[in-house]
Amino acid sequence: MVFGAASFVLGLIVGSFLNVVIHRVPYGTFFSAGRRSHCPHCDVAIAWYDNLPLISWLVLCGKGRCCGQKISARYPAVEVLTGIAFFLIALRHESSLFSGASIDSTRAAWSLFDFWLVGSLIAASAIDIQHRILPDVINFIGIGVGFVAALVVPEAHAGGWLASTAELQPSGLALLNASLGCVLGAGSLYLVGVLGKVVYRTEAMGLGDVKFMAFTGAFIGPDGVLTALLVACVVGAVVGLISTIRTGDPLIPFGPFLAIGVLVGRFWRDDMGRILTEEWPRWVQGSRWGLPVMGGMSLLSLGALFLLRRRRRRRDHDESNFPPAADGQADS
Questions:
Q1: Where are the domains of the chain?
Q2: CA 18 vs CA 3, 129, 177: distances in Å
Q3: Is 110 within 8 Å of 148 (Cβ atoms)?
Q4: Cα(134)–Cα(207) distance, rounded to whole angstroms?
């Protein structure tokens, strides 16, 4: 629990740094003149005692000391989310990390790479929600770190269908697994984008999502990529349909759903594989509700596809009949 508590505090600190990434990277100002944190409203430099993760936001009641303007709740939310994530990762690795009075260096490195992956997922998801982009700086650095992780901790890529078919040393197997995950992640999502463009007759998937899956695929391998895409598509379809019905906008950021799928593919791949290949087929065959549920899900999927396509056509039709007002003209 001491290790878990320390990991939670580390997560709060990293979360504070991720807030800087989320705020600056989309505008390309991350390294601008080496400036430290400053107020987003009045641009005054923030004192160290007003920049403590979570504590300062609570003490100041969510307002800046310099100008009294409201500070977004996103800042403490990202810090707490990162802290909880680091705490859970610490609990996952704790049983094999400590061996008597010594620390397993391989497992410690594995923990650090998991910290890095989850932190990147949080930052990328927050940026995608706010700006509808998945930045190249996170994706490209992530690909490199993923291959370094495969070399340093080949045990993270143990298991899966590739391990049972390839006669390779652990390091070679890990590199091959990371390479296939990178290619399969990018290629499969690019194919989804092409098919979506055919169905919707417009861009359905950005290249940022493709690069994001290349980055995460290097961490989770081909087995994890398939699990991640399945989870992301199911969760994204449900949330996207609800969002479309509420707002009328058929476009949603897909990055957060991919991040959820990557987490499942990284930490619960075997459990998800057992559910899909053993427990779910057994339930469908043995329950009288199995086939009706499958049929209902198919009909709902077709209905959702029809609804999204119709709304997209209506939006495109409205935009063509009422083009945006020229500069200096008010919208009617």
A1: 160-315
A2: 22, 15, 29
A3: no
A4: 9
- pLDDT tens for the chain, 332 residues: list them: 788 899 999 999 999 999 999 988 888 766 655 567 777 777 788 877 878 888 888 888 888 888 888 888 999 999 999 999 999 999 888 877 776 667 778 888 899 999 999 999 999 999 999 998 999 999 999 999 999 999 999 888 877 776 666 677 878 888 999 999 999 999 988 887 787 777 666 666 678 889 999 999 999 999 899 999 989 888 888 887 777 777 766 678 889 999 999 999 999 887 877 777 777 677 667 777 766 766 777 777 666 666 666 666 666 666 665 555 444 333 32
DSSP state of 202: S
Q: Which residue has the tokens 């989850």?
A: 118
Residue 38 tokens, joined = 């400053």
Rounded CA gap, 263 and 166, in Å?
Answer: 26
Q: Which two tokens stand for residue 186?
A: 């990018």
